[in-house]
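Notebook, p. 212. Picked up where the previous page left off. The plan for this session was modest: take the two constructs that came back from the sequencing core last week, fold each one, and keep the raw output in the notebook itself so nobody has to go hunting through shared drives later. Recording the first one now, exactly as returned: residue sequence, then the C-alpha cell string.
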Amino acid sequence: MTKVHREAVRFAQDGYTVVLVGHDGHEEVEGTMGEAPDQIVLVQNEQDVEDLQIDDPERVAYITQTTLAVDETSSILARLRERFPKIVGPRTDDICYATTNRQSAVKQMADGCDLMLVIGSRNSSNSVRLVEVARDCGTEAHLIDTAEEVQEKWLHDARVVGISSGASAPENLVQELVDLFRERGVTDISEFHVIREDVRFMLPKKIREAAGGSAAADGVVEAR
C-alpha cells in the first residue's frame, strides 16, 4: 500500500471526508479512491472545490496525487482551505520530491531555451507535466521515448536545447539523447543544477537494531 493509500485509509477511519486532489482516470487516483469509496471525493480544479457538498465541513481532510504539478496543486489547496478552514492534510507533502524538483528545474531552464525535450512515457503524468511546464513558459517542448524520436524540424531554429526526463526514465536514455547532440557536433553541453536532492529515509527499527555498530546504525539512507 502506498503512502497516499495509507493516508486515505487513516483519514477515513477517523471519520473524515477525504478530498483527493488528482486527475480522473489516473491509476494512482483510482487505486486510492478504492480504499474508501464512500468517503473520498475527487477534485481536479478550483471549480470542483466550489461545487463540493460535504455533510460535516469541520471533518474534512485532503490528500494529493503524487505526480501533480506544484503550481497546479497550490491554488486548489488554497481554495480548499478557504472553504473549509478546519481542513487537515497529510503529515508531509504527498508530491514526490523528485517530481517537484524536476518541475522547478524545467521552469527555470525553459526560460533560456529555444526547445525542451523531455524523455518519458506518454502515460506518465509527471513526464507529460514537464512538457506542459515548459510550454507554459512559452518554450517549444516535446515528449519523447527515445533519442530516435527527435524530429529534424524541431531543431532548425533551436540554438539552445534543454533536456529533462520523467522521474522513472532510465538514465541511459538521457545519455543517448546527449550523445545524439554530440554526434551532431555540439560541444557546449552542461548540466543545469537547481536543487541538490539530499533526502534521508529512516530505516525500519529492526534493521537499525540488526546493524548494531555499523555505519547503518544511524538509521538513515541518503538519496542524492
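Okay, moving on. Second construct, recorded in the same format:
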Amino acid sequence: MRTTCWFVAAALWLVGISSAHAQRRIRVGPTYSLLSLADLSGSNHSFSSFGGSAALITGDDGESGLTIARYNDLSTDGRVRRLTLFGLDSHYYPIGARGVVAPFAGTTLGLARVTEARLGCLLLCGDTVSTTSQLALAFGLGVRVNVGSAAVATLEGRFLQVPGSDIQALEAVANASVALGSLHKGALLAGTLGPAVSAFIPISGPLRGRSPFAGVRFRRDTKKAGSLGLEIDYAPLEVTTGSCAPGCRPNAILFAPGFEASARPVWGRVYGEVGLLLAGFYAQGPDRGMAQGAHGGVGADFYSSRVMWNLNGRLLWLQRNSGENVFGVQVGVSVSPRIGR
C-alpha cells in the first residue's frame, strides 16, 4: 500500500501542468480496490472489493459522485466481517480535471453497512452475526487519466475508516468509466502541486516524529486575495509515554486543508494559513482510527524561472483518540511548477 501512495505522489509531480482539453461532465463505470488491514498482532491482510461509481464535474476544480462498493470478506481473525459502502465522493483538482492526466485530492463520506460476528465466535455462528449502519470516512490523493473525451480512468490511494468497527485501513481504488454528457469548458484560475518534505518538532504530548514526513502540497489561487492550500503527508511517528511506549511506532496519513491569505511581492508570495487537520492511523494500537485538530502558520513562495519553491512553518494541534492533546511545529519545503498572477 505504501508503494501505491508513492506511485500516486510521483505521478502528481510528473504531470506538471497538463494541456487543457474540455472533458465531458459525467462518468460512469465499475470500481475495484485492494485494501490492507492490520490484525491485533500487527500483521497486514489484503482484501479486495468490487462496485461501481458515477460522478459529475461540478466546477473548474471540483467533481462530486456516488460510489457503491462491496467487501465480501474483511476477516483478519476468522470471524465474519463484511462491508457494503455507499459513499459520497468529492474530488478537488488543483490544475483542473482537463488534460490527459489530472491529479486530485479525494474525500468520501458515506454509509457503511457492516456485518460482523461477535468476538470469540470463530466458527459457524450465524445466530451471533449482526449488521449495523455506521458512518464511513476516507481521504487520500490520486490521478485521473482522460482518454480523449470518451473514457476516464482514476487511481486513488486513501485512508478508510468506519469508526464503530475494526476497519481502519489503507486502500488503493481503481475506476474505469465511460464519459457522457456535454463538454465542460471552465475558465479556472491557476493551480499547482508538487512533492513536499517536512520535519515535526514536538512541543507537548506523547507523539514524536521518527523521520521526516513526505507528501504532496496542493495550491490554487482564488478570485479574491487568498489561495486554497492542501498538504497530504505520510507521517512516521512514535509514542513516548503511556502503557505501550516505547514499542508503539504508528504511521499516520495527515490531511491538512487550509485557506491562505496572501501578499505578493515581485519575487513571489508571502501568506498566513489556517485550517483543519485530520490524521488517519491504520495500524493496531491506542491511536488507531481518526484523530482531528487544526493547523495554522506562515509560508513563502519563491519564484525561480518556471519553478516555485515553498518554505513554510505551522503549528499543529491534534487530539488523540485517548483525549490527549498533541502540539508541535511542522517545518517544511516543497517545489512545484510556478504559477503567478
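Notes on construct two before I forget. The helical segments are 2-15.
Flagging for discussion at group meeting.
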